[in-house]
Specification:
By secondary structure, the chain is α/β, with parallel strands linked by helices. The protein contains 12 helices and 12 strands. The chain has 2 domains: about 180 residues, Rossmann fold; about 150 residues, Rossmann fold, CATH 3.40.50.11110. The strands form 2 sheets. It has a 7-stranded parallel β-sheet with strand order 3-2-1-4-5-6-7, sandwiched between helices. The longest helix is centred in the first third of the chain and has 17 residues. The N and C termini lie far apart (about 55 Å).
């Protein structure tokens, strides 16, 4: 038996690719889903699941914050006790930075292969953490208190996992010598791609930068105005739509709608483009998992434009992380995507 543990739509996409890559049969695979950030998050995950394709599908509601976290841990421990007698060959986890996910991996790593699924650019951060062996430094002071309660009272084992295998789209990812890497080329999704009609529209893929306290709301809206003026220079584009991230606040989207009509999808955009067999002339964003995935899935079929944030406007706590993402784009995607600094438009 194999166990997949995920809490986001893109982790679910990569779980399906991992099953295809490792040639795992339906009856060999259990799926454990954490609700994650919101009911909207769970709804998008469920849109990707055929329950008949899994031996068992279990959803644990709630999230990892405040009191919900302890309820989540209670249900998780009950779940793990139920499957404790089953031998697990592989354990796939979608989030390494979460103590709950690491607890699951630490429970099984001695007898099972632990495989980390991509969750967008978080994989780059995880690889750096693994090389530096600084998983404990990820916590702030209150986090360390919570960690002590978890380990001492609740028995949560959330330390470093001795060895993991990265199942990743990042073929040039640097990892420590004790880890392994398998490249996800999205062969399953590529097999579903057929002929595409091109629409004379553009999408701007939203990013929850305001919600994550990376940018101020005012700066975010000002950037969108500049981007709109830049995109309409292409006279072949008749309409521009804003595609929101599931974590963006509705109050912000109300303001965004004064600039762009909002177009919502029920799941990850890259999957919906394949399903509808239509692609826009151009898709733009600041940075997004969507960029990495679409370079691999669509190649030259899709025009992608990335706008680099002005670092002076970025919360200093996130400057290094943002720089690393853009550096990766420039070093790896310079021939596949258009990269433009907002300072230059």
């Amino acid at each position: 038996m194999n166990l997949f543990v995920i809490d986001s739509p893109i982790q679910m996409v990569n779980a399906l690719e991992a099953r295809y890559f490792y040639k795992l049969f339906n009856e060999e695979c259990k799926l454990l889903i954490f609700e994650g950030a919101s009911e909207k998050n769970l709804k998008q995950i469920k849109s990707l699941i055929d329950t008949n394709s899994w031996s068992d599908v279990t959803v644990i509601k709630g999230n990892q914050h405040r009191l919900f976290r302890y309820r989540t841990l209670y249900y998780l421990q009950n779940y793990l006790r139920r499957i404790s007698e089953q031998s697990l060959k592989k354990v796939f986890i979608g989030e390494y930075r979460s103590s709950i996910f690491r607890h699951i991996a630490n429970r099984y790593y001695r007898t099972s292969q632990v495989i980390l699924l991509d969750d967008g650019s978080a994989t780059l951060e995880v690889a750096r953490m693994r090389i530096a062996k600084n998983v404990d430094k990820h916590f702030h002071t209150l986090g360390k208190i919570r960690q002590w309660i978890d380990s001492t009272i609740l028995g949560v084992k959330d330390g470093e996992i001795p060895k993991i295998t990265f199942f990743t789209i990042y073929d040039k990812l640097e990892i420590p010598s004790y880890d392994a890497k398998r490249i996800n080329t999205y062969e399953k999704l590529k097999g579903e791609i057929g002929y595409f009609d091109s629409e004379d529209i553009a999408y701007f893929v939203g990013v929850p930068l305001v919600e994550m306290d990376i940018l101020s709301l005012n700066n975010y809206l000002e950037y969108l105005k500049e981007i709109k003026n830049d995109l309409i220079k292409d006279t072949s584009i008749k309409s521009i739509y804003y595609v929101p991230h599931r974590r963006e606040a509705e109050s912000k989207l109300t303001l965004v709608s004064d600039l762009f009509p909002i177009k919502r999808f029920s799941g990850p955009l890259e999957i919906k483009l394949i399903e509808q067999r239509k692609i826009p002339k151009k898709i733009a964003t600041f940075y997004s998992t969507f960029v990495d995935n679409c370079v691999r899935i669509f190649g030259s079929k899709l025009q992608i434009k990335v706008y680099i944030l002005k670092l002076n406007d970025v919360n200093p706590s996130y400057t290094e992380k943002v720089q690393e993402i853009y550096k990766y784009y420039q070093e790896n995607y310079s021939n596949e995507i258009e990269i433009t600094s907002l300072s230059n438009i």
